[in-house]
Amino acid sequence: MSDQASADSGRRGAIIATSAVGGVGALCAAFPFVSTFAPSEKARAAGAPVEVDVGALKEGERMIVEWRGKPVWIVRRSKEMLDSLAKTEPKVADPKSERKPSELTPEYCRNQNRSIKPDLLVAVGICSHLGCSPTGPFPAGGNVALGDDMGFVCPCHGSTFDMAGRVWKAKPAPDNLEIPPHMYLSDTRLLIGEDKKGA
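Predicted structure:
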């Protein structure tokens, strides 16, 4: 091989190597820029809807998902839990969810069950008093604060809520638990953060 051919081969190799390194560098430089088009975790937490599969949830069980940085409870209520709502109605402060309806209870949940589907309660698990998270659900006789009733108890200051998230009278919490906007995409798929009206 002549010296000229050897020099051409060396230059060709150097050009290929330089092009490869330049291409990798361009990709590395472009990645942060392109990744900025995706919504951030903060933006998602600020209000992006959350899709949940509730198909495996058994009667009496509660699952918790996060929406807008808040814990959202999904409770599959048994017949006994639903029947308890008539018993607790005279004991709760806002039985028809009339207080702050635009903030706390979407129109399609202003019923005794405070839900679209009677067996599924979807509620923000934050006490309306000072923002603690209530515990439960407790069965009848399962918590001293509830006596013979079923429901949830806030461990911070003793507010009690029935199986629809309605607060008892004469408790520190001023309002019922918030019901977030939600809708069902199918029998087992729930979308939290969006409703039929696109709110």
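Summary: The chain has two domains: 1-38, 44-192.
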